[in-house]
């Protein structure tokens, strides 16, 4: 008998509006993310500014709305002033984070103008590792100030008259991590972040600030870090950051497929920590989450660690994970979790955009192509509009080594339109090796499902290159002309899910 699950939905029950910044990504000066990634002046598709048109086109197809820059670990030893002005006057320097000689050809102006040309919102980070209050405030002034002050006039002298109007700012990066240049304990960082953020908002009161949360839920200081840092910054900041990466370890496929349950618990725990600080302060303010690094990354099994990297003088091929259909299913499931927390997660960044654990890969002087993880992100960014509904899923559970009991089926549903009629995005994941029948229960709602996208897991090792990526796409990514509906009655629609699959469907609905 085919396993069964139910998903109950109704437009009267909504989690929250989907902020388009949920579909952000990340470009760090790491490996080939910048050089031979987004930027390669000698490439056949390069525009007059040296940026690859083929990569920009794929970025639009991916649906990326926002990009975080310049790091990441890179930002904690970055002197932004050295990366502005005439390129010929800039000096290369050793990036201590990734042990690479940074050529300094792309800096603040180049990135922000690329983002502006492509219609992408920038998310900037300031260095709170080796620098501090003055440099952070100066960068805000450089980006957002008007003529008549020192740093705004420098921007104008460098050829940019109008302010960039950068709204979203990160107060450093992963400052709880011993690997971070300028690592600090929670009290040191909390005090510095509060002073830097105060100065930055005095320059431009309209900006939003992201304070560093824990680098992962596995950090020994997790929870205590959030509460200590927010005790200093709660009244000043808007968001607290979360970072999480997932991988298959020791052939534990079931735990890997259950990764989104780990993400869900992580979000709930950070929300609880933030709300506890707000309660102690008797504050009605609600801190939200910037999940500004998330992805599948084979960190433990493939990456040798920063300290084991040789000093590189050219863009290094590091952290260029290649992905499988299985990885793509997990990425789709992680997106389901982000949608289901739309009320508390308005900002998220798939890390990263190009070459480095990325949905887009390139060859220097050659082609750009889509990795399997490209497809669930692009489909979700396209179909998830309006509000996330507060759905109720009833499904059997399976026991995993890493996450304990996890549901076999997960789901998210979005509704865009009027209260009594809307367009749906329906996202369903089957984590089991058997087909599953999912009964969508929609009492009082007339629902019609159309086509969409289905991604199924594979059992083959991923191989670098466009040929393998195209093979996975041909065999495991299916454009559905119609939904795989097996039965309909008044108030119910039954959908059949393939084994180990992620499915996104478009639909329409009206109140009956």
Question: Characteristics of this structure?
Answer:
single chain, 512 residues, alpha/beta, Immunoglobulin-like, TIM Barrel, 2 domains, eight-stranded parallel barrel, seven-stranded antiparallel beta sheet, 12 helices, 26 strands, 28% strand
Instruction: Please state the overall shape, judged from the principal axes of the Cα atoms.
Output: globular
Instruction: Tell me the CATH architecture of the largest domain.
Output: Alpha-Beta Barrel
Determine the structural class based on helices, strands and strand pairing: alpha/beta
Helical segment tally?
A: 12
Give the tally of structural domains.
2
Give the spatial strand order of the biggest sheet. Answer: 3-4-7-8-9-10-11-12
Rounded to an integer in angstroms, the radius of gyration calculated over CA atoms is: 23 Å
Largest sheet: 8 strands, parallel, barrel
Strand composition percent: 25-35%
Distance between the termini: 33 Å
Q: Name the helicity range.
A: 25-40%
Strand segment tally: 26
Task: Determine the CATH topology of the largest domain.
Answer: TIM Barrel
Average pLDDT figure: 96
Low-confidence stretches: none
| CATH class bucket of the largest domain | Alpha Beta
CATH homologous group name of the largest domain: Glycosidases
InterPro entries: Alpha-L-AF_C (IPR010720), ASD1_cat (IPR055235), GH (IPR017853), Glyco_hydro_b (IPR013780)
Domain Alpha-L-arabinofuranosidase C-terminal: 292-501
EC number: 3.2.1.55
Catalytic activity: Hydrolysis of terminal non-reducing alpha-L-arabinofuranoside residues in alpha-L-arabinosides
């Amino acid at each position: 008998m085919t396993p069964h699950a139910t998903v109950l939905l109704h437009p009267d029950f909504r989690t929250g509006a989907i902020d388009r910044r949920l579909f952000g990504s990340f470009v760090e000066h790491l490996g080939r993310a910048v050089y031979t990634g987004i930027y390669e002046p000698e490439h056949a598709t390069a525009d007059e500014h040296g940026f690859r048109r083929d990569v920009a086109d794929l970025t639009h197809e991916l649906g990326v709305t926002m990009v975080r820059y310049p790091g990441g670990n890179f930002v904690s030893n970055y002197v932004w002033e050295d990366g502005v002005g005439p390129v010929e006057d800039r000096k290369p320097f050793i990036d201590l984070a990734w042990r690479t000689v940074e050529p300094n050809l792309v800096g603040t102006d180049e990135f922000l103008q690329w983002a502006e040309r492509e219609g992408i919102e920038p998310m900037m980070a300031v260095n709170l590792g080796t620098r501090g209050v003055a440099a952070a405030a100066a960068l805000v002034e450089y980006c957002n100030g008007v003529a008549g002050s020192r740093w705004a006039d420098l921007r104008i002298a460098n050829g940019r008259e109008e302010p960039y109007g950068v709204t979203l700012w990160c107060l450093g990066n992963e400052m709880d991590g011993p690997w971070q240049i300028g690592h600090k304990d929670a009290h040191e960082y909390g005090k510095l972040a509060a002073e830097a953020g105060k100065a930055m908002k005095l320059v431009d009161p309209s900006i939003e600030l992201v304070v560093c949360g824990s680098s992962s839920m596995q950090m020994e200081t997790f929870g205590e870090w959030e509460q200590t840092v927010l005790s200093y910054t709660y009244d000043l900041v808007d968001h607290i950051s979360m970072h999480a990466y997932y991988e298959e370890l020791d052939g534990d496929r079931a735990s890997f497929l259950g990764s989104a349950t780990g993400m869900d618990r992580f979000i709930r725990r950070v929300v609880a920590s933030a709300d506890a600080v707000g309660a102690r302060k008797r504050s009605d303010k609600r801190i939200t989450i910037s999940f500004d690094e998330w992805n599948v990354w084979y960190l433990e099994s493939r990456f040798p660690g920063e300290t084991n990297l040789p000093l590189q003088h050219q863009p290094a091929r590091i952290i260029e994970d290649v992905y499988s259909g299985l990885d793509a299913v997990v990425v789709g499931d992680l997106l389901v979790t982000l949608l289901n927390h739309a009320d508390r997660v308005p900002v998220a960044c798939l890390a990263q955009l190009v070459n480095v654990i990325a949905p887009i890969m390139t060859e220097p002087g050659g082609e750009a192509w889509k990795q399997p993880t490209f497809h669930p992100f692009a489909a979700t960014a396209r179909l998830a509009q309006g509000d996330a509904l507060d759905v109720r899923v009833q499904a059997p559970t399976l026991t995993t080594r890493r996450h304990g009991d996890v549901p076999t089926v997960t789901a998210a549903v979005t509704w865009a339109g009027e209260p009594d009629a809307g367009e749906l995005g329906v996202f369903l994941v089957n984590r089991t090796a058997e087909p599953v029948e999912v009964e969508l229960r929609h009492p009082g709602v007339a629902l019609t499902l159309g086509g969409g996208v289905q991604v199924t897991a594979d059992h083959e090792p991923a191989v670098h290159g466009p040929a393998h990526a195209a093979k996975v796409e041909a065999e495991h990514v299916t454009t559905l002309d119609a939904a795989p509906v097996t039965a309909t009655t008044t108030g119910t629609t039954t959908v059949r899910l393939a084994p180990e699959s992620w499915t996104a469907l478009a639909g329409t609905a009206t109140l009956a």
